[in-house]
Design goal:
Residues 207-340 are annotated as: Disordered. Keywords: Signal. Residues 1-20 form the signal peptide. Residues 225-320 have a biased composition (Low complexity). InterPro entries: LolA/LolB/LppX (IPR029046), Sporulation_related (IPR052944). The structure is a single chain. The protein has 438 residues and is an alpha+beta fold. It has 2 domains: 27-194, Clam (outer membrane lipoprotein receptor (LolB), chain A), CATH 2.50.20; 227-436, MucB/RseB, C-terminal domain (Phosphorylase Kinase, domain 1), CATH 3.30.200.100. Helices cover 16% and strands 35% of the residues. The chain contains 6 helices and 23 strands. It has helices spanning 2-21, 27-39, 122-131, 205-209, 316-320, 422-436, and strands at residues 43-52, 59-68, 72-79, 85-91, 94-99, 104-108, 136-140, 143-149, 157-165, 171-178, 183-194, 220-223, 228-230, 255-257, 263-267, 281-282, 340-350, 353-362, 366-371, 384-387, 392-397, 402-408, 411-417. The strands form 3 sheets. The protein has a 13-stranded mixed beta sheet with strand order 7-8-9-10-11-1-2-3-4-5-6-12-13. Strands 17-18-19-23-22-21-20 form a 7-stranded antiparallel beta sheet, covered by helices on one side. A 3-stranded mixed beta sheet has the order 15-14-16. Strand 9 (157-165) and strand 10 (171-178) form a beta hairpin. Helix 2 (27-39) packs across helix 3 (122-131). The chain is globular. It starts with a helix and ends with a helix.
């Protein structure tokens, strides 16, 4: 009898252990399942909150993600406090960055997001798990947790933890940390659904801009890859134009670069004389205006068609800058790279709009220009899409000099430098946005 009871007790213990472990898999099994899930992925939608801890205070953004096989993406980033949305689309026509409130569209020929990981894209998260053979695995209530290497544009992001629901492997949370294990970015998904039925209009550029497919006011289109643009601004055809004219005059346009090779990008507005002399100036030791930096290149006057030819001039600062006609209150970055200090700060008119120019010098030399364009102008500059967390920007230029351009809350920003690394550019940009959100 005792043996019988002992056998029953042992059987119950084994059954209890099996039941307790039911639904829990080991790392190898989950990785195999994830590989199958990724291979058979047709579509998904997700919503959540992304928080950036890169500034002095956390910044929150609403994130909406839609994906349709084989290559259709839509990502909407919305400032939770100010209800300002920027949308990234990939469709058959290319990759687009939309700012509906400004009626602004940038188009890129790019492999995005294949060449740029995104913390809120399922493909990026799963691939990081599959590729990291040193991954760690844990079970946290109803989720499997992977700790893997991070692979993002920002090189300071070292590792990430990914929480996947046990039931369907949908992501519930992501935390990305730096080398000191400090969380820099977190995403918490409120919902995530596989197999979503998505209409074609979800990925349509015109629909996302809120404009009709034909007729009516069309959004300004920037097509860097085809080197052409259609704009509504009478004074300029380029966001990156070095000089623009007032409504109906050719003007005396001037662009300047500073003595360390980084562009001041200041432009003077024209008088009413209709003169056609358009000059670009460079200081001693600076690159000439032959194309080292797209921001220094000459622009085409929409009204007259006059080309603005570049010519060297020794008095760039005097010719390039003009006092702002209107009032413009710029924002100072709260982050400065080590060994860098502010050199000067002055009001300018850039592209016919009032703004400020702040120059920095030290271990890195760079210039920050802030303006509020009255009309949206189109860019004819080739560029690379940059995910800055709170928005998307564009890197243009070459190995000699590069410019990071982005738009936020109606203000256009550009950082130009010959030696400031891209990661530092992004940190400066994030600190400006953090100051604006206070």
């Amino acid at each position: 009898m005792r043996r019988r009871f002992s056998f029953i007790a042992a059987l119950l213990l084994c059954l209890t252990a099996v039941l307790a472990g039911c639904g829990t898999k080991d790392a190898e099994s989950v990785v195999k399942d994830l590989d199958k899930t990724l291979s058979g992925l047709d579509s998904y939608t997700g919503k959540g909150v992304m928080t950036l801890f890169t500034g002095q205070q956390p910044l929150e953004y609403q994130v909406e993600v839609s994906y349709q096989k084989p290559q259709y993406y839509r990502i909407a980033l919305t400032n939770a406090k100010k209800d300002i949305t920027q949308i990234v689309l990939r469709n058959d026509e290319g990759v687009f960055v939309l700012t509906p409130r400004l009626n602004k569209v940038f188009r890129f020929q790019s492999d995005w997001p294949a060449n740029q990981g995104q913390v809120y894209l399922y493909q990026t998260l799963v691939q990081s798990i599959l590729l990291d053979n040193s991954r760690t695995f844990a079970v946290d209530n109803d989720a499997y947790v992977f700790d893997v290497m991070a692979n993002y544009q920002n090189g300071s992001l070292a590792r990430q933890k990914i929480w996947l629901n046990k039931s369907d492997y949908a992501p519930s949370k992501v935390e990305v940390s730096d080398a000191n294990n400090a969380v820099m970015v977190s995403v918490k998904f409120d919902s995530f659904k596989f197999g979503s039925k998505l209409e074609k209009s979800v990925f349509d550029t015109q629909k996302n801009m809120g404009t009709p497919a034909a007729g009516g006011d069309q959004p300004t289109m920037a097509d860097p890859d085809n080197n052409s643009a259609n704009g509504t601004n009478n004074g300029s055809n380029g966001d990156n134009a070095a000089a623009t004219t007032d409504n109906n005059s050719n003007g005396n346009n001037a662009a300047a670069t500073n003595d360390n090779g980084s562009s001041d990008n200041a432009a003077a507005t024209t008088d009413d004389s209709g003169n056609g002399s358009n000059n670009a100036a460079t200081n001693d030791g600076a690159n000439n205006a032959s194309g080292n930096n797209p921001d220094d290149n000459s622009s085409t006057n929409v009204d007259s068609g006059t080309d603005n030819n570049a010519a060297n001039n020794d008095s760039a600062d005097e010719g390039a800058m003009a006092p702002a006609d209107g009032t413009f209150s710029g924002m100072d970055p709260t982050y400065l790279p080590d060994g860098v200090s502010e050199k000067d700060n002055q009001s300018i008119v850039f592209g016919g709009n009032p703004g400020i120019m702040i120059r920095y010098a030290g271990s890195y030399d760079y210039t920050l220009i802030e303006t509020q364009p009255k009309d949206v102008a189109a860019s004819a500059t080739e560029g690379t899409l940059v995910d800055m967390g709170f928005t998307y920007g564009m890197i243009s230029g070459d190995d000699v000099q590069r410019t990071l351009t982005w738009t936020y809350e109606g203000t256009e920003f550009r950082i130009t430098s010959a030696n400031l690394p891209e990661t530092e550019m992004v940190k400066v940009a994030q600190s400006v946005e953090g100051d604006m959100s206070k």
